Amino acid sequence: MLSGTIRRALAAIICAIASLSLCVVHAAETQTTEYALKNGLRIIVREDHRAPTVVSMLWYKAGSMDEVNGKTGVAHVLEHMMFKGTETVPAEQFSKIIANVGGRVNAFTARDATGYHEQLHKSQLPLAFRLEADRMANLKLSRDEFDKEIKVVMEERRLRTDDRPQALVHEQLMATALVAHPYRTPTVGWMSDLENMTWQDAREWYDHWYAPNNAILVVVGDVVPREVFALAEKYFGGIKKKVLPERKPQNEPPQLGTRRITVKAPAELPSLVMGYRAPILHDVDKDWEPYALEMLAGVLDGHDAARLNSDLVRRDKIAQAAGAGYESTQRGPGMFVLTGVPAVGKTIPELEQALRREVARIVSDGVSEEELKRASAQVVSSQVFQRDSIYFQAMLIGSLEIGGYSYEAMDIMIEKLKQVTAAQVQEVAKKYLIDETLTVAVLDPQPLEGRKPAAEPAAGVRHVQ
Amino acid sequence: MCNRLSQAVFAVAMCLLALPALAVLPIAHWQTANGAHVYFVESRGLPMLDVSVDFPAGSAFDTREKSGRASLTLSLLKLGAGGLSEDDIARRMADTGAQFSGRFDSDRAGMSLRSLSSPEELNPAVDVFARVLQHPDFPPGVLEREKGRIVAAIKESDTKPETILSRRFNELAYPNHPYGLRSSGEVATVSTLTRDDLADFYRRYYTSDQAVVAIMGDLDRKQAAALAEKLTADLPRSSAAPSIPDVPQPARAQMSVVPHPATQSHLLTGLPGIKRDDPDYFPLFVGNYILGGGGFESRMTTEVRTKRGLAYSAYSYFAPLLQRGPFVIGLQTRKDQAGAALEVVRATLQDFLANGPSEDELAKAKQNIVGGFPLRIDSNRKILDYLATIGFYHLPLTYIDDFVPRVEKVTLAEIRAAFARRVDPAHMVTVVVAADPAALAAAGVK
To answer: Would you say residue B444 has pLDDT above 80?
Structure first.
């Protein structure tokens, strides 16, 4: 049953059956087609015929934001366990089978979703589907394998968070800025939760969320959509849908004033992160604020000539580095972030004042048409540049879909970004970059010498169910 | 035909079906009027193009006294050139939506431009790129500011276990050789660099006859030729080709333990490996896939991570350079496990050196590398990097065509012999940062 827009589906079919010369005309356009199985699995195919390769990316709408207290990190642990064997494919064989046909396999866990992907020669797509379908339904998940792998995950946390001051600052910032929404917990999980996690916790996560009706399969590459749909039907069609657990919204209560924290860690340079509460995109057609916030981030930090780099680093020499960032499309609450490292001889308070002056200047004077045009030029060119990578295209499509937007929103969003006015940028700066909803995190660098390592919590007693 | 790239890559599939007469990628190669080497592939699939220009001007051309000069020279190119200020350059680039990126390692220094191919965007971006490459101003005020930023970044970097690890390793594996110098330079040396230092370095090393121009994307041969001329016509001419001294083998095996408050030990063991044109390149490349290059399929990952849960990442690689670049094995593990992990690494390497891989491992490595070959050239960016590497390291134009047959041809005996020649544990340098000396001693590590 075709559930994508008829127009695009037809266009794709016409392209598929037409002569190759038609492809020349449309070489620079993207053909994206959608299909859904009866068990709820949705498949989105984007054709890119530049090379005989394909990426298959299976997204489960189950990220760390779906976790509950005491079990943080379980989404990511399960991602690791997905390589540990099914009834018919022994542990570690998934990667080996794909590697043996020249494929690359990996996975990622994020706040909003968990994704599994294979990059292969297009002739090997059936193999990727067969293996992914198998582990969607038949994961074995033994205690032995879990006990080994949880140690690997703890090493990953040490590597990526505990020994990285900037990662600690980010972790602490989120845990402070939010009090109710699960975006406050780190995707990798708190170490204590990892130490006390059991194989049954991972099993429960798998049983709850790994279902065709909680997944989206994105395929980008040198493929024919109807063939991909037939393959998906063949391999995934027999998997039963599940009744998914209820998702509680866990909305954040209003923030009633600035929050400030300090993180002490071994480092040389201090750094500053200022996170302001911000809306996210809900209605692609009607909302305008998220687009204006994107352009605000672009004016401040979208390119080398943007304000923060140009004013604070180059002209005033008050910052070693400075940046701004905002994500409009995600499942959870939004945040507009300013970051900076003071130049040598400058202090964190001086840098904070400088960043605040930049904000105040936009609130009082707005931005110029020239600046907007410049920010817009990056939007336009990156639309083309990102199509050089089929992997990146699959990431874009999947993350939009997981966020609750259609892949078709992409084109609309580009147009909306280009339509943002200087007055709108000024208005969102005035409305959202305010002290009431600000959280400030500072890295207070500590000397390496003469310090004991941060004591690791004693190994917890395993919870017995 | 849809476009040149798909046509070209379609040929890969044909090639895999044993029709080696077809060229995988039709690379055009020529020299500009003043001697720059140009490598070009046309691809009409997307309305964009990439162009890179590289020079033998990496950190290997630094001296100990002026360490950091090569890196600083490259980073200042786009901060003032041909009468344009750094802000002018940044604004003009931003107006076109084009992007600069830099490439800097021991051997190479270079910049690349990614731009839309429409003339309204491309022409101004190329104009800026041409000035930046050929008429850098090295403004004194900008230089002083950047020196301050780099010094601060070096100090920050010196607090990180991974930086301390690679620095110490390079000092021990490459004593008295420029490959042992830190690419960013040191606090003491960067502070003393002058505008003349950079201008001299630029004149000596950014020369037209050493320049390698790689072009990939939506333009034809004639346009590519004009582009290459525009980017190189005003480059300095050189008097002699620069060279890097031979790398001696470390006299003996060495172990260095550096304290650090991190929760994990970082471990690196290795030695100078091979040159880019070494005849052992393919046997070592395929053999290393089995030892520690092939992710979950590799022995290192299997022994360290899968069987024992000792680390998130365990790997080995060869980084061939103009002279012998490093061969290393590395991992990170909880402090008290460092000794145990090092023992596993040593035993795994020892077994590999003594017995070599199995027939089955070799067959699977070849299946992966050969079967995965199309993934190596499925984007403009990847092809551009191949063009730049072929040009810089004087690899044959048929390098990409030859890649699959050369991998296919590797034998077990060749892998064993190549590893025996190139990886001798009696000369390997081992560094552990943030180790617990008691844990190392308890594991019997010396």
So the answer is: no
Considering only CB atoms, A305 lies closest to which of B48, B91, B371, namely B91
Q: Give the percent of chain B with pLDDT over 70.
A: 94
* Distance between CA atoms of residues A218 and A46, nearest Å: 8
Beta strands (DSSP E) in A15-139 are 31-36, 42-47, 53-60, 104-109, 114-121
pLDDT cut 90: percent of chain A above it: 90
Binary contact (A374, B264; C-beta < 8 A): no
User: Chain B residues with CB inside 8 Å of A154's CB?
Assistant: 334
Q: Would the CB atoms of B90 and A378 count as touching at under 8 Å?
A: no
Mean pLDDT in residue range B84-90: 97
**A31-236 classified as CATH 3.30.70.270:** no
Residue B23 has pLDDT above 90, yes or no: no
Q: Show Cβ contacts of residue B94 under 8 Å, excluding neighbours closer than 6 positions.
A: A302, A303, A304, A305, A306, A374, A377, A378
Which helix (H) or strand (E) segment is B214 a member of? strand B212-217
Range of weakest confidence among A454-463, B405-414, B419-428: A454-463
Pairing label, strands A259-266, A438-446: parallel
Who among B94, B332, B380 is closest to A388 (CB)? Answer: B380
CB A441 within 8 A of CB A173: yes
> B41 touching A, CB under 8 A?
no
Q: For chain A, where do the domains classified as CATH 3.30.830.10 start and end?
A: 31-236, 259-447
Average per-residue pLDDT in chain B?
A: 93
The whole-model pTM stands at 0.91
Pairing of strands B254-258, B429-433: parallel
- What digits encode the pLDDT tens for the residues A136-189? 999 999 999 999 999 999 999 999 999 999 999 999 999 999 999 999 999 999
Residue A11 pLDDT > 70, yes or no? no
Which residues of A are the active-site residues?
79
A462 Cβ neighbours under 8 A, 6+ residues apart:
A196, A198
CB within 8 Å: B333 and A155: yes
User: pLDDT digits over B356-371, tens only?
Assistant: 999 999 999 999 999 9
B409 close contact with A: CB closer than 8 A: no
Interface of B with A in 87-146 (CB under 8 A): 87, 89-91, 93-100, 114-116, 121, 145
Question: What would the pLDDT profile of A75-110 be if each residue is shown by its tens digit?
Answer: 999 999 999 999 999 999 999 999 999 999 999 999
Is A414 exposed, middle or buried, given 0-12, 13-18 or 19+ CB atoms closer than 10 A?
middle
Q: What is the DSSP string of B143-157?
A: HHHHHHHHHHHHHHH
Query: What residue of A is the nearest CA neighbor of B298?
Result: A96
What the block records as the tokens of A15 is 């392209």
Distance from CA of B439 to the nearest CA of A (A): 15
User: Using H for helix, E for strand and C for coil, what is the string for B237-279?
Assistant: CCCCCCCCCCCCCCCCCEEEEECCCCCEEEEEEEEECCECCCC
* A140-159 residues touching B, CB cutoff 8 A: 148-156, 158-159
Domain A259-447: CATH superfamily is Metalloenzyme, LuxS/M16 peptidase-like (3.30.830.10)
Closest CA to B111 of B322, B390, B384: B384
Average pLDDT over residues A25-46: 83
